[in-house]
Amino acid sequence: MTTLTVETSALVGRHLRHLGRVPMRLLGVTVMPVAYVVIFGYLFGSVIEVPDGGYREFLMAGIFAQMMLTNLQHTALGVVDDLGNGIDDRFRSLPIAGLAVPLARTVADLTRVVIACVAMAVVGYAMGWRTHTGPAQVLAGFGLLLLLGFAASWIGVLLGLRLRSAETVSAVAFLVIMPMTFLSNAFIPLRGLPDWLRTACEWNPLSAVVAACRELFGNPGTTGDALPMRHPVAASLLLTVALLLISATLAAHTYRAAARGR
């Protein structure tokens, strides 16, 4: 293994051990995502009708994508915490690759959302969610979700390094996550919206990811007039890869600049 891989693996282990020692963080990983599935599944499922399928099958791709997007806030707050308690300064004083520190943070947070996805999938299955495609397509759907979560985590690194305040990070993350989640097809079919609002929702990158996952899972709710809705898998893959490359490059540059200026 390369030196970067070894150093990153050691730091990922440190993050995961810390997660296991803080029960409240484990609650955030398991209990809250499961609560979202149950509440949204039964609350919205009783009033929203979805063509060609039930609402709970429609919901799961959207709630998976929402969980991946919230990785942005968790990572940003973790970076701010490391900056505030001096851990980051100690890492920078060690003879390790500078990229290992932010990379370990993003990989550890991606592991956290994998745990959340497993818990949500189990509860969703108990509530009636099923996939109707082959194993390769289902795995591709979860792979696309993890790619979104990884990109969101790198955006979180960038925000944490730039803002350096938990209050500011929470406010900015709210302004990003809430509009992207609710101005999308994550929780409601878009067919009943006014034309201008439906168009805006269909061009939301999160809508492309959600529609792609529904297509890969064989769940209802993949139709739309905008280009990302007509080709959701290709569009979501292109958008998430571009977002990952841009955010990771900017975050790595910001981290190196901060290390040089300390």
From TrEMBL:
| Compartments (UniProt record) | Cell membrane; Membrane
Domain ABC transmembrane type-2, by residue range, is: 24-258
Superkingdom per UniProt: Bacteria
Q: Which residues form the signal peptide?
A: none
Q: What keywords were assigned to this record?
A: Antibiotic resistance, Cell membrane, Membrane, Transmembrane, Transmembrane helix, Transport
> What membrane topology does the annotation report for this chain?
Multi-pass membrane protein
**Where are the bilayer-spanning segments?**
26-48, 110-127, 139-161, 168-188, 233-252
Q: What is its main location?
A: membrane
In the record, the note on similarity to other proteins reads: Belongs to the ABC-2 integral membrane protein family.
- The molecule here is called Transport permease protein
User: Which source organism?
Assistant: Micromonospora tulbaghiae
